[in-house]
Amino acid sequence: MERLEQALFRLEQGFELQFRLGPTLQGKEVQVYTNYPAKGHKFDRLKFHPLDWVYPNGQEDDCDKYCRLDLVVAGSYQYYFSCGDKEKVSGGYIVVDPVLRVGASNDILPLDCISSQTYLAKCLGPLDKWLDRVRVAKETGYNMIHFTALQKLGSSGCCYSIADQLELNPDFSRDGTSYTWRDIGNLVEMLRKDWNMVCITDVVYNHTAADSEWIHLHPECGYNLVNAPYLKPAWLLDRALWHLSCEVADGKYTEQGVPALIQNEQHINALRCILLQQVFSRLRLWEFLQVSVDAAVEQFKQLLQAGNSGVRSRSAPECKKQLLMVQDPQHRRFGNTVDMNSALDIFTPHSDSMSPSAIQDCCSCFRRRLEELNFELYKEMIHHTERATNCIVEGVIHERLADEGPKLGQVTRRYPLCPRYFTFPFEKMGFDEEAQLMAQREKACYILAHDGFVAGTDLLRNFAEPGSQVYLRRELVCQENTIKLRYGEKPEDCPYLWTHMKTYTEIIAEVFSGLCLVNCLSTPLHVAEYMLDQARALRPDLYVVADLLNRSEELQNACVTRLGITSLIRDAAGAAESQEEGRWLSWFGKEPVGAFIQPSLRPLVPAVAHTMFMDISPNDHSQIQNCSVYDFLPNSTLVSMACCATGSTRGYDELLPHQISEDHQYTYWNSDQVNLQTGIVAAKLALNRLHQELAAEGFTQVYVERLGEGVTAVTRHCPSNHESVVAVLRRPVKNPERNHYTHDVPPMFIPGQVKEVVLEAVTIVSDTNRKDDKNISGLSACTVEIREHIQVKDSEVVKKADTVLKHNSVGQEIVFEKFTPGCIVIFRVTLEPGSQEQLGALRRHLIQFSPQYQSGSLAEHSTPSILTKPLMTIMSRVTPADMNMLLYRCDAEEREDGGGCYNIPSWLPLNYGGLQGLMSVMAEIRPKNDLSHPLCDNLRQGDWMMDYVSNRLLAKGGAVGEVGHWLQAMFGYLRHIPHYLVPCYFDAIIQGVYTTALEAVFKRMSSFVQNGSSLVKQLALGSVQMCGVYRSWALPALSPHLKDATNGLDEASDQEELGCMSLAAGLPHFCAGIFRCWGRDTFISLRGLLLLTGRHLEARNIILAFAGTLRYGLIPNLLGQGGSARYNCRDAVWWWLQSIQEYCTLVPDGVSILKCPVSRMYPNNVSEPQPAGASDQPLYDLIQEAMQTHMQGIQFRETNAGLQLDPNMTEEGFNVEAGVDQTTGFIYGGNRFNCGTWMDKMGESERAHNKGVPATPRDGSAVEIVGLCKSTVCWLVKLHNDGHFPYAEVNICRGGQTYSVTYVEWDAQIQENFEKKFYISHNPQDPEEKQPELVHKRGIYKDSVGASSPWCDYQLRPNFPIAMTVAPELFTVEKAWEALSVAEKKLLGPLGMKTLDPDDMVYCGVYDINIDNENFNQAKGFNYHQGPEWLWPVSYFLRAKLHFAKKIGKETYDETVNLVKSVLSHHAVHVERSPWKGLPGLTNENGQHCPFSCESQASSIATILEVLYDL
Q1: Angle 996-1002-1007 (CA atoms, 0-180°, nearest 5)?
Q2: Cα–chain-centroid distance for residue 1442?
Q3: Alpha carbon distance 936, 948 (integer Å)
Q4: What backbone phi and psi angles, to 5 degrees, belong to 902?
Q5: Distance, C-alpha 557 to centroid of its chain
Q6: Smallest Cα–Cα separation from 951: which of 909, 999, 992, 900?
Q7: Which residues of 1073-1086 are buried (b: 16+ CB within 10 A; e: fewer)?
Q8: Which of 170, 715, 955, 1442 is 20 to 30 A distant from 782 in Cα terms?
Q9: CB burial class (10 A; 0-12, 13-18, 19+) of residue 862?
Q10: Is residue 497 within 8 Å of residue 218, measured between CB atoms?
């Protein structure tokens, strides 16, 4: 389960959000809950409801099911998951953006279109003059006005110090006219409807003005000495510092080195000494932490005398740990006590009797411990006072000495030594008298803590709550004009405050479209959450903005997700240089230019909070005061080009560099005060219009480039029509008024054709200053010359624009002149007409894959004929065998055909020559828009990859060649578009072809696949991946007398097939040459890859082709086209027989295969290979021969035995033996020098002395072979009884005599003996157990019976579940279930099954063929089957579990189904993430990747498909 509590998921209204199960949750009872309101219900944050699961394919499949939310209500919503008994496993938040509307017809104002201007409300004057003043915003092109707080302010006049949250500022009324909130509402609505402007305002929840009347009527709403008595030491210190400050101001400390005017380090050092030696020592603040020793000892003594004996005494270290302090709730000096129960437990002696001397000893011991404890508390307080001293001194240095500080000058009562942290609403009195106030509750409740902030701490932690020492340590940057509000955890904790602030919030929500959370980080999250819920109840589409001061992403997300903040304010003025701005703009862009087209249904990934990018923050003008006038215009241009909301503050466009004071009011929009000739207003109007146009028209792609010193280019690009707007600006890195700048700017290449200069502007500064005492001081007189919508040739900053070819793209090289700091130029760029035509035509052809290509599509005059028909028409004629080439083929397969996979320079070769090779890489690149990936570079640099893809298919001819022709025509368009767009459209073409091919493939497959889950479909593609036709891979030719043989013509392509399709064992190691076709792997895989997918003809042909190679009663292990086959495995023939049985069962009229003619390559054991048709027999004869030969016994030596055949085998290993044990009916075979089952690793290391030694000989009767034999014999009995198989028995010749064994008898013999011989019972005296000393696990089944090394029989391996699956009748249900439980506990891994019990002494779970050491059990990969986790056995384990669970009962079966789903979820994830789109043959222990395994193994894919079929 992913932990997503801190992730930000932002969505727009109208989206559908789906919740799907991750791999760890599949197979478990999971329920999703959310507080998103159900249809017809109101939002309640505390009310969660479950979501229903949707099953898209009608089956209860965990990998595809989902639950959904249709998002139509803005806000922040929570979700969580329950799993089984766990009520809440994990969860998170989703934020749904609001929809803002303007105008009489309520047109939508997209969030990225917002251009906001902030107004300081106190500078607006009377309400009847507001329209004249805010008209400046309208005429400058803004569409949002952000007002600071409109409420009555405190006496300080600070915009954020509100005296009464419910009362409109009386300064807005005049001449007897009293305005109300209704009047404000009317004005705001008029601005919205008539001026198309949205209005928002500030809300402040964390404090109120220090002179608010209501806080003094309700002091419980703040932190006072009654409800927060832990602040008493801090308050006492605060008063002592005030008195010290007064005395310093009066000159009383001058002789001690601290005059009223502090000027140097000596004064500072003297102040430090006074603080430590006089102030803190006199206050004795440690006493607030300490215990009254005498009182505690006396109480303890009385308890002892009263006979309270405790438990035994403890050692001294324990005593120190366990003596518990009891905090005095009133926080008085020496008010703390200790828990007497813990004291009695610790200090009472062993004996029950307590003599006076014993009591005295106990009390003495107790006293010593209390004195130690008090000393520790003394040291703790000294640490706090040292920190406080440092903070006080640092504050004095900053305020009075530092160059960057305010230089306050002399210490006075107005400018004290340090700020006051608490109110003091009393008459002047002495310090000792003040100290008495702490005990007077009726007065102490009016001593309230001021608000402020603490640098460098957890901003979400309330610094005024218990446990914080901020006030005591003097760490608060204090705002003396405010009082910090104390909400508690819920409304009941402070009813008046919650009600008061709720009313305040409702007033705002009724009037304004949005609000700005001031001091968001200082406001308790649960408070802001509650208040915003109240606001959204009145205005669902509430726009919420906040300034989180560029804090960490984690902190920002915590606020954004909990509160549903729409936009975060970012301040561009703080960036050091344009390079930094460029990084920000890239961040605020939706996506890069040339970004890939994303699918409509895609994973929801954590987002970055939406931004309001401001050229200057309303809170901090310090940066802009110090910058050059030449920076205003370029800075505004940078901001306006961002793909997000933008903002400014009134005065910036007029070049007013500092905050407006309360003595001034905003000017009006008219010819005398503010107009288009003022400052950069005209340019800002053009920039705001452009910003809104770009957002509305879908210019969502952004690219930022630094051209030179201070010169930045920002591109906004529209991905549908591929128009661009490019802004080039020059900022002053140094002040141009004092530094010389050259006019030289590097030329700039712009791909495409510059249609016009949208805007060019030059900042011109005169030598005179302007000043208007009625308003606000300005900067140097400055004008901005702007020119709009001109041709490049008419530009005054562009010298020339030549058409050039660069980076394979036609474009214009812009050469600048007189482009000095303060200049900007913005170009509108379209594609070159030829490129526009080609791209329009390409988009038209892509519509067949997605309607999103409709916009920007164009009809063309002459369409290539191959493109006049839908691709699906062509694709429907491509055979599954040809799909193998179209989609897959790894490098080894490609090289067999004289080619190879495409090698991307500076990176890697693709895994496949077919489309999957590209799709796997693009799947990594596309979601991240990783346009710098080497594959994208390769596409931009040339046509090589396009040529490779199309030419490879054209060379094949037929229907595949037609697909190549189609691709060649589509790539023709790509050759004529700008290089930066090639990766995007190449991906679109490849995706379209790939998805069409998959659709065509699935149409040819069985209903199991067509109606199956996404995992079924992904695995079914393994059938295409592994099955192909090629000359060097060909199976032996089929009989010419066989109907529908594929040696003839392929109807779709009219081409002669090169041979019977073969099935690769695994990619990339076992897919080409003699190592492609393995008998065992082919028939383990045949049911899953061919029969279950509906490819019955191919399955039949493979069965018959291998039948033709039957020799010695066996089919080959390695086929080698038949002529060089090796008959050295005992199990392949039984997997072949099992596949024939499955064919007869699953295929309609499948039994007809038994009569199909088989061309015998070897009519007898000694004959030379024969041509097809020379010696034909029906298949049932070969089945009988295999059974007969085994019953008679098999003994031969491999042809060409020796080093040339196998350089690691000893001479004895080439001797092959197999037969039937006449006493049990079990198949047996092998010897200790060879390995004839699937566990076939032969030792190779001379250094470790394991060369020629099989790691797992498994001679004797291997359990899975016995099971396969039983399955076959039972099936033949039924076939014979049904008249489909002419043989009822096999014959044995012994000593010149022949006698017969019927299949019925053989079947019964195996049935009777199996559990006797294979089951290891819990009974140590079991008479069937011949070697009980070798038993190390009971309740399991042996891996073999009769091994030459008897201990091998008893090893726990994953083979017995195979027998359980193919012949479940051999097993008692209870015994089988117990054995499977042991296997589950010991062998089951994330993807596969351990091949050996980890408790076994030779277990080694990591396979590494490269290690050649002296370790016999590991060297040269000797442990191939001695621990590593193979995938294909896990399917037989799961299928066996399902079978026997059903026998036990419904509850067990349901639990088992959940287990199976849980296990398969890991396979689903692996297939999804694997660039090979397959499952490996094996993993190292605990599912770790094994680099020596095939990345995609036929048997792994096929057998997992079988599990899904069983489900």
Answers
A1: 150
A2: 34
A3: 15
A4: -65, 130
A5: 15
A6: 900
A7: eebbbbbbbbbbbb
A8: 715
A9: exposed
A10: yes
Distance CA 986, CA 935 (A): 11
Residue 1406 is encoded by which pair of tokens? 């990591």
Q: State whether residue 779 is helix, strand or coil.
A: coil
Structure confidence at residue 175 as a pLDDT band (50, 70, 90):
confident
Tens-place pLDDT, residues 1209-1234? 999 999 999 999 999 999 999 999 99
User: What are the residues facing 252 on neighbouring strands?
Assistant: none
pLDDT digits (tens, 9 = 90+) for 705-737: 888 888 999 999 999 999 999 999 999 887 665
Q: What are phi and psi of 1166, to 5 degrees?
A: -115, 0
The angle that helices 1096-1107 and 1079-1086 make with each other, rounded to 10 degrees, is 150
Question: CA 1053 → CA 578, 869, 877, 914, 926, distances in Å?
Answer: 61, 18, 8, 19, 35
**What percent of the residues of the chain are helix, what percent strand, and what percent coil, each to the nearest 5?**
40, 20, 40
* pLDDT, tens digit (0-9, with 9 covering 90-100), for 599-652: 988 888 888 889 999 988 776 655 556 678 899 999 999 999 999 999 999 999
3-state SS class at 49: strand
Give the residue with greater pLDDT, 1380 vs 1205: 1380
The DSSP-derived string for 1067-1132 is ETTBSSGGGS-BHHHHHHHHIIIIITTT-HHHHHHHHHHHHTT-BTTB--SB-TTTTT-B---SSH
The rounded percent of the chain whose pLDDT value lies above 90 is 80
Please tell me the pTM assigned to this model: 0.88
Beta-ladder partners of 31 = 82
E-state strands within 485-579? 514-518, 543-546, 567-571
Rounded CA-CA distance 714/639 in Å is 10
| C-alpha distances in Å from residue 1251, one per residue of 679, 995, 1216, 1248, 1256 | 89, 49, 19, 8, 13
- Listed residue (1216, 1232, 1300, 1316) closest to 1266, CA to CA: 1316
The arithmetic mean of pLDDT across residues 1189-1193, rounded, is 96
H/E element, 970: helix 958-974
- The rounded distance, in Å, linking the Cα atoms of 1089 and 1023 is 5
Asked if residue 516 has pLDDT above 50, the reply is: yes
Reduced to 3 states (helix: H, G, I; strand: E, B; else coil), residue 1341 is: strand
CA distance 549 to 203: 17
pLDDT digits (tens, 9 = 90+) for 839-863: 999 999 999 999 999 999 999 889 9
Q: How far apart are CA 845 and CA 871, in angstroms?
A: 10
Closest CA to 483 of 942, 922, 268, 161: 161
3-state secondary structure of 1185: helix
525-538 helix and 495-511 helix, angle to the nearest 10 degrees: 40
Q: What is the mean pLDDT of the chain?
A: 91
Query: How far are the Cα atoms of 99, 193, 255 from residue 113, in angstroms, in the given order?
Result: 12, 17, 65
pLDDT digits (tens, 9 = 90+) for 120-162: 999 999 999 999 999 999 999 999 999 999 999 999 999 999 9
Please report which confidence band the pLDDT of residue 554 belongs to, taking 50, 70 and 90 as the band edges. confident
State the residue for tokens 């760890």.
Answer: 24
| Single-letter amino acid code for the residue at 469 | Q
What does DSSP assign to residue 1388?
B
Q: Which three-class secondary structure state does DSSP give residue 153?
A: strand
3-state secondary structure of 123: helix
Count of beta carbons in the 10 Å neighbourhood of residue 1142: 24
Lowest mean pLDDT among 485-494, 763-772, 785-794, 1452-1461: 763-772
In angstroms, the Cα distances linking 46 to 34, 530, 1382 are: 10, 11, 45
Cα distance between residue 476 and residue 849, in whole Å = 61
Q: Give kind and range of the element (H or E) at residue 717.
A: strand 711-717
What the block records as the tokens of 1433 is 């056995």
AA identity, residue 1421? G
